[in-house]
Amino acid sequence: MSSLIEQATKRLEQLRRAGVDLENNVQPIPAIKLEDRVNHVEVDPVAPIISQDSSKKTISVSRKVILDLDAIAAAGIVSPNAPRSQIADQYRVIKRPLITNAMGRGASTIENGNLIMVTSALAGEGKSFSAINLAMSIATELDNTVMLVDADVARPSVLRMLGLPASPGLLDLLVGDVDDLSSVLLKTNIDKLTLLPSGTPHLRATELLASDAMSQLIKNIANRYSDRIIIFDSPPLLLTTESRVLATHMGQIVMVVHAEKTLQADVQHALSSIEACPVKLMVLNQARSGSQGGYGGYGGYGYGYGQQSA
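Structure (tokenized):
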């Protein structure tokens, strides 16, 4: 059997003898633009892609999640799509001095002013609810973007409260299962809001918060996203010493206190553990309007503000 080349050669000779002008009948192949080819590639932006090396997780960098803004608003969380509400007005007041300090527009420059930790003395005081609301409120700003980090790694709740499934995140970065920070960030349908989940549960989760890896990660975040406000939902101050270590990296701390529940001694003890932080703001959760002590002017929330030199 003759080869394909021999057959093609014979065919060309036959065409020439028949008087066919081969040069003028060759049709050019249309050029294919790279972007045209890329547009046909479909990538699932949510599902993680696991590499063949089981020791490393390679996750798509284009992950995006859709928040149910109506459900979020119904749960009492600030939503950009919700009409003006009492809680939205409260958080406009709470966020203003924080943004001023974060953007370096305060009376003095605060180191790591864009790193804000939201915490409490004890569990159940509403710190995660406050961290989410603060992040959502800042995300409605015209000139500011925000990243919300679920650093309460022993009892993570940010994704659950936002109606999202668990996802790789902070702990995966700290133990080295994931190398790239951007690969575990969740972009949301709120343009200026990004989430960093707590990640895969780990037996030594709280100890990892006080590790050198965490210190280095915070430095990387501060340098990489210097124009972004980073909010950390941290463990309660009196339940773990790791949260106090985390506080040493922060420029500002918001401490949530449950009105008529948290003991004054616990509040004072918690505040004494974060004396090194230059800026501390206290939010009184579940305050009744008209309560004593200067709180409650905004119904469910009141706030106090204090600053000391670094």
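DSSP finds eleven helices and nine strands in the chain. Residues 55 and 194 are 27 Å apart (CA to CA).
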